[in-house]
Amino acid sequence: MNNWLKQLRVHQWVKNLLLFVPLLASFKFFEATPAFLFLGLAFVSFSLVSSAVYIFNDVLDLENDRAHSLKRNRPMASGKISVGAGLLVGIASLLIGLLVGFFVGTNFFIAVLAYLGFAFVYSIWLKHWALVDVISLAGLYTLRVIAGGFASGIEVSYWLLAFSIFFFLSLAWVKRYAELESIQKSGFTQAVGRAYSTTDMPLILAFGASSGVLAVVIFALYLDSAAIRVDYALPQVGWLAIPFIMYLVGRMWFKAHRGEMNQDPLLYLFRDWPTIFTVVLLAASLVIAHLGFG
């Protein structure tokens, strides 16, 4: 059972909590019981489809994974799960996920199909191209936010989309930087199956940090826009969120630069206690800005 949980990447399902972002950002969670139901189904759909993608990706990357210092321990790469059994479970997971997505709604189902197609193209081709791969990863993260808007019936604002793209782009660069940091510690210079080498690390650091800063700037511009006055009683309190976002971005890059980012950065955001505490403070500042003090 443990091998199958690893193969399905159940721990990666936490990424699909991004589906709830539009509902949380709109502050309609107290009046959206049906939306929570549809978002729950959407979460199941995306999780099963993403697990199928992980399985198919592992089949395609089998040889590269066996040559990787860490990925060779994956169930299929190590031989603990046969390729045939993996494909069978992957197909079943995909079909069930698509069926659940179909019941959520037409727009959401189209978003799931777009994610599926995009993920396959990424696995087969895009991930082997420098720069294109991280932009694609940011797009896959952002697509979850868009799909969450379809599932909940809440329109995703351009401000949220712009912030998401640059924030997730910074996360994608963190992922690549952390991989190269691990490779460098192992005494190698080239990432297996990737178009990066350890000599690219300073450039990746520059791109990634600047993407995070751009996300902060976009959020600051949003706080100074006319749009915020629609949903916020005290917009000025929202500025308290800025240092918290800056801390989140900075902490990720400090951890990656020190070689301490040993997992997917988005998973890290959900597991690191200082990060979780910062997110709570960030959310509290936005809730106070939305509700006011009375």
Could you explain how this protein is built, in words?
The chain is mainly alpha-helical and 294 residues long. It folds into 2 domains: 156 residues, UbiA prenyltransferase (Tetracycline Repressor, domain 2); 138 residues. It is built from 14 helices and no strands. The chain is globular.
Give short descriptive properties of this protein.
294 residues; mainly alpha; Tetracycline Repressor, domain 2; 14 helices; 71% helix
> Could you tell me the number of beta strands?
0
Instruction: Give the CATH H-level superfamily of the largest domain.
Output: UbiA prenyltransferase
* CATH architecture verdict of the largest domain: Orthogonal Bundle
| CATH overall fold name of the largest domain | Tetracycline Repressor, domain 2
| Helix amount | over 70%
Just give the CATH class of the largest domain. Mainly Alpha
Tell me the distance between the termini.
51 Å
Question: On the 0-100 scale, what is the average pLDDT?
Answer: 89
Q: Poorly predicted ranges (pLDDT <50, ≥5 residues)?
A: none
Name the structural class: mainly alpha
Q: Give the radius of gyration.
A: 20 Å
Shape: globular
SSE arrangement, N to C: HHHHHHHHHHHHHH
Largest sheet: none
Proportion of β residues?
under 5%
Q: How many structural domains in the coordinates?
A: 2
